[in-house]
Amino acid sequence: MTRLVVVSNRVASPTETKGSAGGLAVGVFGALKDSGGVWFGWSGDVVSDSVANQGPKLEQDGAVTFATVGLPKKDYDQYYRGFSNATLWPVFHYRNDLAVYDREEYAGYRRVNSWLAHRAIKLLQPDDVIWVHDYHLIPFGEALRSEGVTNRMGFFLHIPFPSPQILLNIPPHAELVKSLCCYDVVGFQTPGDQAAFHDYIVRHAHGTATADGEVEAFGRRLKTGVYRIGIFPDEIAEQATRGEARQDVMDLKQSLEGRKLIMSVDRLDYSKGLVERFKAFEHFLEKSPEWRGNVTLVQIAPPTRSDVDTYQQIRHNLEYEAGRINGRYSGLDYTPIRYMNQRYDRWKLMSLFRESQIGLVTPLRDGMNLVAKEYVAAQNPDDPGVLVLSQFAGAADEMKGALMVNPHDIVGMSEAIGRALSMPLAERRERYETSMVMLRKYDLGVWRDSFLADLRGVNLNKQPNKRPAGNK
Ligand code: GDG
User: Fold this and answer.
1) Same domain, yes or no, for 190 and 280?
2) In what order do the strands lie in the sheet with 208-209?
3) Residue 309, domain member (yes or no)
4) With a 6 A CB cut-off, is 265 part of the ligand 1 pocket?
5) Could you tell me if 173 and 238 lie in one domain?
6) 84, 339, 345, 368: which to mutate for ligand 1, most atoms within 8 A of CB?
């Protein structure tokens, strides 16, 4: 099998991939171990220019090389904090109102992608298959092509692809889509994302797109596909019953004193619908006095991107809302919302999911949302909790056993909480089984293997501008 080179904004360290990293890192690492290869990207460190230019730091783990670079402050500001997270992230999540556009940041975004590509070239071999991940690295493939790299190259978008009317708000939208067309395979989370991309190609790029994903535009031919990212359900079930978390779970149960538990876990991000969720829980307590003092919402929200202005704002709003609601409904021995702004070990999260009666996952927009899948996989099959899920999470396409809600409908979410809390065991079991069928069918291995099979199967000679002879 040809070697695999994975490129992502952040690279998990060899120890992280074996420890508490999410399933995604473990899944990608699994593919790398199978074929041997390189995982290339930013180390997460901000460094001086001279350190950044020293060349990638290499760490070997069996057949896998972890190759990381640091970023100078200016690059971090323009590429990561700026165009990636203050322009692309909000717009791709349909939040034009929160997006800012700055030409210099965009120039920095492209410059860093070219610089990263230049660093990566030295690690490449002629037959390597290159798999690039997510919105930070859209122009990475084009930068490699401009340096003469003709390898098979695929790109997977973890977040939604917005409809053209939304995407047009980003001034260099055409350049971004042209960059995507430099890959051989472009993968999306859901059919809706793929359709939005095709729509742009046909209506705004004078290209063509067929229902089976053959796209021609900007003088390139490529394949698009839907690859639903999943989890390894058995691994989650094992983590949920691990002994290490026992004490924490016992402590929590003791402090709940028999109250029902609602669990929510999200990175602290405005796309996750946290404020609306808190308001829905408040509405539920307001309309259901019999539940006051008898149900607790535990919200775990580790901070991310805290140096981007909009993230400081959401944190402030959330603290205000939690304080306000707790002020209204707390008793001497009861706090309705326990809001934790910190990161927890993975097995603790999974164990808490298993102990809870509801998993409340209500993003305003989400590429997939792995927490929804983890919640279901962590349940006790004999007495499962209920997943309450936003219709705007990519996972809603598959998790048919969930109680579906519109996260803008506070009353609707409040009603779903009530319904889930009093759902009979037989219905809970049936819903759990319905979702588990899909979780097993589209697990993380299927996502990874189907993407790589499509990428490895690409016929490079089919390009309109055929590549020079001798390239595979
Ligand atoms: C992007 C897309 C898409 C969360 N808090 C803690 C913790 N987590 C873990 C969860 C889960 C992961 O982080 C979050 O994944 P999500 O899918 O829910 O969301 P994003 O981070 O926004 O991910 C998303 C995903 O990429 C994959 O393609 O599904 O739509 O936005 O695994 O469990 N893990 C630990 N402690 C925490 O406190 N250990």
Assistant:
1) no
2) 57-61, 64-71, 37-46, 4-10, 129-133, 153-156, 185-188, 220-226, 214-217, 208-209
3) yes
4) yes
5) no
6) 368
For the residues 335-346, what does the mean pLDDT come to? 93
Length of the chain: 472
Which 8-state DSSP code applies to residue 160? Answer: P
Are 34 and 136 contained in the same domain? yes
CATH, residue 360? 3.40.50.2000
CA distances from 84 to 81, 219, 395, 398 (A): 6, 26, 23, 28
CA distances from 85 to 22, 95, 211, 278, 310 (A): 21, 12, 31, 25, 10
Q: Is the alpha carbon torsion for 398, 28, 10, 233 positive or negative?
A: positive
Residue 129 to residue 373: CA distance in whole angstroms: 29
Distance CA 13, CA 9 (A): 13
* 274 and 364 together in one domain: yes
Which residue in 92, 199, 88, 185 sits closest to 141, CA to CA?
Answer: 185
Residue 468: inside a domain, yes or no? no
Number of H helices, E strands in the chain: 19, 16
**Crossing angle of helices 444-456/23-35, nearest 10°?**
40
The number of the ligand 1 atom at minimal distance from the alpha carbon of 229 is 28
Q: Are residues 181 and 225 in the same domain?
A: yes
Query: Per-residue pLDDT tens for 280-332?
Result: 999 999 999 999 999 999 999 998 888 888 888 889 999 999 999 999 999 99
Share in percent of the chain as helix, strand, coil (round to 5) = 50, 20, 30
d(CA 447, CA 157): 13
Three-state DSSP class for 21?
A: coil
Please provide the distance, in angstroms rounded to a whole number, between the alpha carbons at the two ends of the chain: 14
Q: Which residues are catalytic?
A: 158, 366
Look up residue 218 and give its amino acid: F
Whether residues 430 and 455 fall in one domain: no
Q: How many domains does the chain have?
A: 2
**How do residues 153-188 score in pLDDT, each as one tens digit?**
999 999 999 999 999 999 999 999 999 999 999 999
From 369, 398, 443, 444, the mutation candidate for ligand 1 (largest count of ligand atoms within 8 A of CB) is 369
Q: Look at residue 467 and tell me if it is in a domain.
A: no
Phi and psi at 305, nearest 5°, equal: 45, 40
Q: Are residues 381 and 267 in the same domain?
A: yes
Structure tokens at 184: 């051989």
Whole-angstrom distance, CA of residue 375 vs CA of residue 11: 25
What would the pLDDT profile of 86-110 be if each residue is shown by its tens digit?
A: 999 999 999 999 999 999 999 999 9
The answer to whether residues 207 and 330 belong to one domain is no
Smallest CA-to-CA distance from 112 within 80, 88, 150 is with: 80
Helix, coil or strand: residue 233: helix
User: What letter does residue 395 receive in the DSSP assignment?
Assistant: G
